């Protein structure tokens, strides 16, 4: 842990909270399909791929769609989501996120993103932190979803570091499991109850700012 050479950040829930925009887009889709989708039900979609998220949504609505139609619905949801996040600004960064990234930069730590999001680049640019990342591994560069360690192993590889020299920052259980499976030290963002497998848990990155 003392020898952190690389820091790998999940995006959602760690640096920024785009969950509300995902929720609004899924809710809009559910409403169009004729049923409602609550915030409680939305918990089931956390850290889950877009394909699986739609399957869960359709199961909740008791609706069956063929693969072609599912693909169309996923695109529709994503278009709405992209419209929502276009208006994001640096103000939406989670407390301490930019300060901590700048602190790591100053300390010479290499920084990577390790996120399932396929829209990571546009989000980082909207938040004005894109240039702080040495490597960006997002949903366009991996085939396996967390808890598979692929995203974090690729991030370490991109940084030119071994897994044990990297620390993962994650807010979802599947992400914590992926970090551990990659052989990395994992700092959970949230609570110990929700992230029991993390090596250390903080409420937010602001707790790590010196």
Automatic annotation (TrEMBL):
<dbReference type="InterPro" id="IPR023214">
    <property type="entry name" value="HAD_sf"/>
</dbReference>
<feature type="active site" description="Proton donor/acceptor">
    <location>
        <position position="10"/>
    </location>
</feature>
<feature type="binding site">
    <location>
        <position position="170"/>
    </location>
    <ligand>
        <name>Mg(2+)</name>
    </ligand>
</feature>
<protein>
    <submittedName>
        <fullName>Beta-phosphoglucomutase</fullName>
    </submittedName>
</protein>
<feature type="site" description="Important for catalytic activity and assists the phosphoryl transfer reaction to Asp8 by balancing charge and orienting the reacting groups">
    <location>
        <position position="146"/>
    </location>
</feature>
<keyword id="KW-0460">Magnesium</keyword>
<feature type="binding site">
    <location>
        <begin position="115"/>
        <end position="119"/>
    </location>
    <ligand>
        <name>substrate</name>
    </ligand>
</feature>
<feature type="binding site">
    <location>
        <position position="10"/>
    </location>
    <ligand>
        <name>Mg(2+)</name>
    </ligand>
</feature>
<feature type="binding site">
    <location>
        <begin position="10"/>
        <end position="12"/>
    </location>
    <ligand>
        <name>substrate</name>
    </ligand>
</feature>
<dbReference type="InterPro" id="IPR051806">
    <property type="entry name" value="HAD-like_SPP"/>
</dbReference>
<dbReference type="InterPro" id="IPR006439">
    <property type="entry name" value="HAD-SF_hydro_IA"/>
</dbReference>
<comment type="similarity">
    <text>Belongs to the HAD-like hydrolase superfamily. CbbY/CbbZ/Gph/YieH family.</text>
</comment>
<feature type="binding site">
    <location>
        <position position="26"/>
    </location>
    <ligand>
        <name>substrate</name>
    </ligand>
</feature>
<dbReference type="Pfam" id="PF13419">
    <property type="entry name" value="HAD_2"/>
</dbReference>
<feature type="binding site">
    <location>
        <position position="146"/>
    </location>
    <ligand>
        <name>substrate</name>
    </ligand>
</feature>
<dbReference type="InterPro" id="IPR023198">
    <property type="entry name" value="PGP-like_dom2"/>
</dbReference>
<dbReference type="InterPro" id="IPR036412">
    <property type="entry name" value="HAD-like_sf"/>
</dbReference>
<dbReference type="GO" id="GO:0005975">
    <property type="term" value="P:carbohydrate metabolic process"/>
</dbReference>
<dbReference type="GO" id="GO:0008801">
    <property type="term" value="F:beta-phosphoglucomutase activity"/>
</dbReference>
<dbReference type="InterPro" id="IPR010976">
    <property type="entry name" value="B-phosphoglucomutase_hydrolase"/>
</dbReference>
<dbReference type="InterPro" id="IPR010972">
    <property type="entry name" value="Beta-PGM"/>
</dbReference>
<feature type="binding site">
    <location>
        <begin position="45"/>
        <end position="50"/>
    </location>
    <ligand>
        <name>substrate</name>
    </ligand>
</feature>
<feature type="active site" description="Proton donor/acceptor">
    <location>
        <position position="12"/>
    </location>
</feature>
<dbReference type="GO" id="GO:0000287">
    <property type="term" value="F:magnesium ion binding"/>
</dbReference>
<feature type="site" description="Important for catalytic activity and assists the phosphoryl transfer reaction to Asp8 by balancing charge and orienting the reacting groups">
    <location>
        <position position="115"/>
    </location>
</feature>
<keyword id="KW-0479">Metal-binding</keyword>
<feature type="binding site">
    <location>
        <position position="77"/>
    </location>
    <ligand>
        <name>substrate</name>
    </ligand>
</feature>
<feature type="binding site">
    <location>
        <position position="12"/>
    </location>
    <ligand>
        <name>Mg(2+)</name>
    </ligand>
</feature>
<feature type="binding site">
    <location>
        <position position="53"/>
    </location>
    <ligand>
        <name>substrate</name>
    </ligand>
</feature>
<dbReference type="GO" id="GO:0050308">
    <property type="term" value="F:sugar-phosphatase activity"/>
</dbReference>
<dbReference type="InterPro" id="IPR041492">
    <property type="entry name" value="HAD_2"/>
</dbReference>
<feature type="binding site">
    <location>
        <position position="171"/>
    </location>
    <ligand>
        <name>Mg(2+)</name>
    </ligand>
</feature>
